[in-house]
Amino acid sequence: MDLLKEIANISGKSGLYRILKPSRAGVIVEGLNEKREKTMIGPTARVSVLKDVSVFTEGAEDSVPLADVFMQIREKHGEEVEVNTKTASDKELIEFMDDILPEFDRSRVYISDIKKIINWYNLLSQYAPEAFETSTEAATEEATEDTATEETATVDTAETEESAPVEASGEAEATETKGTKSKKNKA
Q1: How many domains does the chain divide into?
Q2: Quick one: CA dihedral 91, 97, 102, 104, positive or negative?
Q3: Mean pLDDT of the chain
Q4: Has this prediction a pTM greater than 0.70?
Q5: 25, 64, 107, 114: which is deepest, by most CB within 10 A?
Q6: Which parts of the chain register pLDDT below 50?
Q7: Residue 78 lies in a domain
Q8: Which pLDDT tens digit goes with each residue over 87-123?
Q9: What is the domain range of residue 22?
């Protein structure tokens, strides 16, 4: 769910946006919808990156990252949540959230927050499905890269050890030559 650091919600605008590039005058974003419209968001706009958003909970932890909530939704509901946020009752929305995250704080997580979570999840599933790549795939890729890096490091170390004495003797010759030249110049 590393992709969430590139996805943002902008206060006053509906939907989600992919952050493309920061600039002097604000941030260039692209809408996560059919249009994929690019727009400039000014520096005074309230932009919330989804990686930094969390859901309040009761108990030992104060909150749970939104990425973890999205993964729970993916496990229980698949690619799309069938709950219609426009017609669902408050009770249905609370039951949905209770099913996903039973320890959510009912006094600090509002119905509007639950609707946002459902809408954001459906948008990400539809327009950025790569956000839900499993961590096992990422771990396998990292392990492969680490193995390749270790092999390269071993080869580099062997080459350095072989070439080190040659470089040292070359430096000694250069030092002797410099010493000789300076003696000749003084004479």
Answers
A1: 3
A2: negative
A3: 78
A4: no
A5: 114
A6: 136-140, 142-144, 146-180, 182-184, 186-187
A7: yes
A8: 999 999 999 999 999 999 999 999 999 999 999 999 9
A9: 2-49
